[in-house]
Amino acid sequence: MDKLWLIIKREYLTRVKKRSFILATLLTPFAFALFFIVIGFIFSYESGETLRIAIVDKEDIFKKRIADENNLIFKFENRDLETLRNDFENTGYNGIIVIPSLKNITYKNYTVAYYADNQLGLDVRSNIERKISNKIRDYKIEELKLDKDELEYLKTSVTLNPEPINPLDEDKSPAASWVAAAIGGIMGFMMYMTVFIYGMMVMRSVMEEKTSRIVEVIISSVRPFQLMMGKIIGVGAVGLTQFAIWGVLIPVLYLLVMLIFGFDPEQMNATASTGQEVDVEEIEGMLAQGRAAISNMNWWLIVPLFIFYFLGGYFLYSSLFAAVGSAMGDDLGEGQALTIPITIPVIMALYIMMVAIRAPQSNLAVWASIFPLFSPIVMPARLAFDPPLWEILLSMVVLAGTSIFFVWLAARIYRVGILMYGKKVSFKELGKWIFYKD
Amino acid sequence: MNVLKIENVTKTYDKNVAVDNVSFEMPEGSIFGLLGPNGAGKTSLIRIITTITGADQGTVYLNGEKLNSSHREQIGYMPEERGLYKKMKIGEHLIYLARLKGLSKSEAMEATKHWFVKFNIEDWWGKRVEELSKGMQQKIQFIATIIHKPKLLILDEPFSGLDPINTNLIKDEIDELHHNGTSIIFSTHRMEQVEEICEYIVLLNEGRNVLEGKVKDIKNQFKENIYKIEFDGDLPSNIHEMAEIVKQKEKSITVKLEQEVDSNELLKNLIEHGVHITSFHEILPSLNEIFIKQVEETLKPS
Fold first, then answer.
1. Which of A69, B20, B90, B248 has the most Cβ atoms closer than 10 angstroms to its Cβ?
2. Inter-chain contact B83–A419, Cβ cutoff 8 Å?
3. Domain B2-219: which topology?
């Protein structure tokens, strides 16, 4: 036990003290922040150029009124198209829109000609189309002698509000399910990343010990099982450290970015909704519901369970990676084939997880969250949807049992593999190793 | 008292018998040569003694006790293929290995410092292993092997890759350990080193114990009554009747005597014939010759 602790400490400290680890841990959130800033900047970019557009509206469909915007200035022209075209250079316009007459009010398609030397950008084009469409709508309402207010009454926004069958059960806000999906997705994805990054780290480290031949010295002092477990636990602790640092750093950075760049939610809504008319109040309502849903989640259950699945999944997969690493020789490429059977279930689990978020009670989701190779990724994603207790318990028992079994199995392969050199390893060979006597 | 007793030990990998019913004893405080060609089962046997693997059959006793994992701390093992953590600092590395052998933190620190001073390498403490030359790494590896003062030291080809200066340095250390009562198993192909260092040997081939005993006894056992005589004057013509001439030069002759012929008889005969003898000595077979002969003999039947 003492020696296991020594090994864990070494595995942990040598990694955590490495400059590359410190840099990666500190810079990753900055890289993400930078990424989002750049993305935000790109999306908020508007062509600085202001377009001046002449509107030739002989029928006076628009009633000489159309709202200007920052980079769009409209002017109603009395001159006809021919005159404007001949003297285009001197008019100072960038383009001319000619509004044709609307002969039949039932027409649903309406083509408007835009005369210009330059093509319009996609955004500007759809913006102008929407403006014209709105004006045509107003014109039609007037022609049909409809009441504009009455028309507004036709619009109804519908929300499906989930209510429990048993009135004593907790009532869920409508936002609960998308909050659950988001949390589930994040959890599932984190599990997936963990298994890959840290599982691979265990594998590489086992390989290095084998190829550098230090392993023989170490296992003349400790049992191979202690060395393997020390490595798995040490690397796992590195993973948890990294998550903990990010857990603090990312919210802090997020706040800093908000403060420095002043992305307050309302402004973001405003930029997001330049086109669609989304009610700011409505969005704020949704945000409030979301916040309520997050605080209504049963975190006392979800967090411990998440840690359980994290550990279960990590032990299960990293022990397999350790076994494969022990079988690899100096030739990394040759051994790569051995990792494929481990990575396939992880990737499958990720896809099943995505389906499980959309349909958390489907047969696929339920069984995948019990099957131990998938459950570490699928079950955390389902937890936010309150799966039945028996499913959680069954899945936990199966995962714990399988993890212990896989660790045992991996240790059997590992103890033979680390001392085996110059042998091309197949799965049949690995299978044989399990039954070797000590 | 025997420090190590191997009793009918057998180890099989798959269908390949690596160690086949090997038995021998190693006296306490001796330097013991474990010899054999490649694939003879030396490494497999060493791995059993170091408790890295277990024997399928048979028993190993260390100081009279059945070998178990608690004995690891009394054994120091330097494998043929050396290896250290390349990125680790040397001081930390030695402390780590010492602590895995059961030393406390302060003991490990003290022992490491002791060796740094002894080998005059104090300024290496903070260097990484990868910054050292191969010979220097070997030195560190040697320190790591003996830092916990093992009762039984197992060295697999300890001098391979060392320059003559470092070879002597390590040899002196081995001598010192030997004088302090450490029992040393020395596994090698280099017979001249075995003759120089070892008191006892065991020769393995194809997993079996082919030959064992004191180096002196073995050499006597394999002696072929060959003598080298240096002389002045002319040899008598009847010398062919007394001995078979192996090699003849102007002033020296190497002869092989029949089993029943006493070497004194030959000398007497020569002196009576007026030959002036300047030197006379028996030529014992080198371990190298015995090694090759034995290995070839065990190969023949198969």
1. B90
2. no
3. Rossmann fold (3.40.50)
